[in-house]
Give the backbone structure.
Amino acid sequence: MARRPVIAGNWKMHNLQQDAIDLTNGVMQALKEEDKSALPEVIIAPTFTSLYAANKALKDCGCGKVRLAAQNCYFEEKGAFTGECSVQMLKDTGCEYIIIGHSERREYFGETDEMVNKKAKAILSNGLIPIICCGESLEQREAGVTDYHIASQITKALRDLSASDVAKSIIAYEPIWAIGTGKTCDSTEANRVISMIRNVVKGLYDANTADSIRILYGGSVKPETIKEQMAQSDIDGALVGGASLKADSFAAIVKGAM
Ligand code: PGA
């Protein structure tokens, strides 16, 4: 089955509102000549405070080539949860996707597999798409428990989700040791782990669901690495951090995935 590629830019904690507007416009400008139907699904994920501004820039352009994601959410609908944002609030701000379970959130903010699962359910029940991150540390890789760890993260993240919800979800495999380090995971190894993830999905659901879910690679993706990554059988795109902060490098990655 042909899966539509996805290139998502995770801006992390960067960019004030005007920077976000400039970068959003820069990305759209760089993709101006491209035929929309030939493009991958292009997603940008600004911080909460820049979502409104980025969404306005996207709407003003009206090209429909770039979509909006949040970097996190809370799973409750509303209430006394100081400092949190619900899925509905993010949807109201124009988000169609929400990144959950990023290793930085797991490491610095105590996000657990159970929270990732609750967030995935809240996202899907509001009609949005979760981008579920998973990945092993260098210690885990060296101890030979990469596959075990990732399979466990994915199994817990997907608990009690329907096959149709899983089929439209996105997973991002991001080895922690490759994030922000400039050290990209070898493409064939990334592809091996990603096909292992697809197999886990097949075991939990069925072949159709496993064939439909998009699984991205993340970790020091650059314009120079994307072609080789996209040439792999199971890599459906990329979650890009550092290289998404400049319009030209992000657009080059998008074009490299066409
Ligand atoms: P990086 O970040 O591209 O800067 O390595 C990827 C990510 O954390 O999503």
Q: What stands out?
A: The domain at 6-256 is CATH 3.20.20.70 (TIM Barrel). The beta strands are 6-10, 41-45, 66-70, 97-100, 129-134, 170-173, 214-218, 237-240. The mean pLDDT is 97. Residues 10, 174, 179-180, 218-221, 239-243 surround 2-phosphoglycolic acid (CB under 6 Å).
